[in-house]
Design brief:
Helix content is about 65%, strand content about 0%. With about 160 residues, the chain is mainly alpha-helical. It has a single domain (about 20-155), classed as Alpha Horseshoe (Serine Threonine Protein Phosphatase 5, Tetratricopeptide repeat). Helix 2 runs antiparallel to helix 3 and helix 6 (about 100-110) packs antiparallel against helix 7 (about 120-130).
């Protein structure tokens, strides 16, 4: 192998080790809809190992909020939920028109215990989702449409 080719090959291998690809949406949403703490923990762990991005953080926040269902003790449940809410809310504040982040929050708000009072943005989130729906990738459109089929807040008719 020629030295130039060899060093080029080494450069590509090393460079590709530092490039992080985003977590597969279908794997994330499988964990997000799971009723099993191990699947949620596994996805959180995977996300924490990946390069930080806005989507990565929003996903982590949503999963921590879902994880709160499995945590023992009311104080620990609230602490875990608030940790996730803080992360997700920060990402929504940075990207207020991101329909996927709004969808994550809407799905959590719709099922959060009333005592948490985490339900104040449902109509606003529904509006952002409906407005941004046409620009989403087909996989996410399908996920949102499936959710809307059983949602009390957003209906399939709300989506263009």
């Amino acid at each position: 192998m020629k030295p130039v080719t060899f060093f080029g090959f080494i450069f590509i291998v090393l460079f590709s080790a530092f490039i992080s690809k985003e977590v597969d949406k279908s794997n994330f949403y499988k964990a997000f809809s799971a009723r099993n703490e191990q699947e949620i923990d596994g996805m959180i762990s995977l996300l924490e190992k990946e390069k930080s991005s806005s989507a990565n953080l929003a996903y982590q926040g949503a999963l921590y909020m879902k994880k709160a269902d499995f945590v023992k003790g009311a104080n620990n449940k609230i602490k875990t939920f608030k940790k996730g809410a803080g992360i997700l809310e920060d990402e929504i504040a940075k990207k207020p028109s991101n329909a996927e982040f709004r969808f994550l929050r809407l799905a959590i708000q719709e099922h959060a215990p009333k005592i948490l009072k985490y339900n104040k943005n449902q109509s606003e989130d529904k509006k952002v989702i409906a407005e941004g729906y046409k620009n989403l990738d087909p996989e996410l459109k399908k996920i949102i449409k499936n959710y809307a089929a059983s949602s009390a807040v957003i209906k399939i008719d709300d989506l263009p």
